[in-house]
Amino acid sequence: MHAENSSSPNGNTYITGIKTGASGETVQIRLSDGSSFFIHPEKYAELGLYRDCPVDHDLKEKLQEAATLHSAMRKALQLSARRDHSLYEMRLKLRQREYPEHIISVVLDKLHGLGICDDRRFAELWLQSRMRKKNEGPVKIKAELAKRGVDAGIVEELLQDMLGPEQVEEALERATETVLKRCRGDQDRFVRMLQNRGFSWTLIKKHSIGKFIEYYKDLR
């Protein structure tokens, strides 16, 4: 019988303990050199591990890789439970936690395959929320989704489906009412503020300049 805190008589490292977590989603592998690895049950089965199993350098590297992947996947699932993320956002957050790039790529592939990280669904939910909370035009929305790594083709499709000319004009009308009170009678500033919200000069000229003139005419 091996001692728990030592290597085998021939100096090799071996597995001293295997413990499955209460949720059944994690297996802890303890080695005779004092190291410990938390891996997914599928990986545990794939590696064919057992108590007193000898662990050479190659197997230990596989355990480390499996533990890193398991950790990154759990972190990604925790982040996804809080809110939807684009694939780009998730990549950035995993990078911030210093996971290796190849591990991040594997995690993102798994998340996408499971439907947990889907850029189209993310963009649709983001756009719905944005439309409720802010009065912005297509230019601003495209820029914001581009910063989140969403493909331009996806954005164009969603804008056609969810933000047609009528919705854009309604958003511009609401934005105009807000900006009129903040521009202090400065027409150039009025236009810049609406452009910063993502509305084109063509739309502003057609729908908003007249309101600016009438608003400040009445105040004189």
Q: In a few lines, what is going on in this structure?
A:
It is built from 11 helices and 4 strands. The chain has helices at residues 41-47, 57-82, 87-96, 101-113, 119-133, 138-147, 152-162, 165-180, 187-196, 201-207, 209-219; strands at residues 13-20, 27-31, 36-39, 54-55. Helix 2 (57-82) packs across helix 4, helix 3 (87-96) runs antiparallel to helix 4 (101-113) and helix 6 runs antiparallel to helix 7.
Helices and strands, with pairings:
Elements: E1 13-20, E2 27-31, E3 36-39, H1 41-47, E4 54-55, H2 57-82, H3 87-96, H4 101-113, H5 119-133, H6 138-147, H7 152-162, H8 165-180, H9 187-196, H10 201-207, H11 209-219
Antiparallel strand pairs: 1-2, 1-4, 2-3
Characterization of the model:
There is one protein chain. This protein is of the alpha+beta class. The chain has two domains: 13-113, Arc Repressor Mutant, subunit A, CATH 1.10.10; 119-219. It contains eleven helices and four strands. Strands 3-2-1-4 form a four-stranded antiparallel sheet. It is rod-shaped. Mean pLDDT is 91; it is low at 1-9.
User: What's the number of extended β-strand segments?
Assistant: 4
Termini distance? 97 Å
Can you name the CATH architecture of the largest domain? Orthogonal Bundle
CATH topology of the largest domain: Arc Repressor Mutant, subunit A
Provide the CATH superfamily of the largest domain. Answer: Winged helix-like DNA-binding domain superfamily/Winged helix DNA-binding domain
Number of separate domains: 2
Q: What percent strand?
A: 5-15%
Give me some keywords for this one:
220 residues, Arc Repressor Mutant, subunit A, 2 domains, four-stranded antiparallel beta sheet, rod-shaped
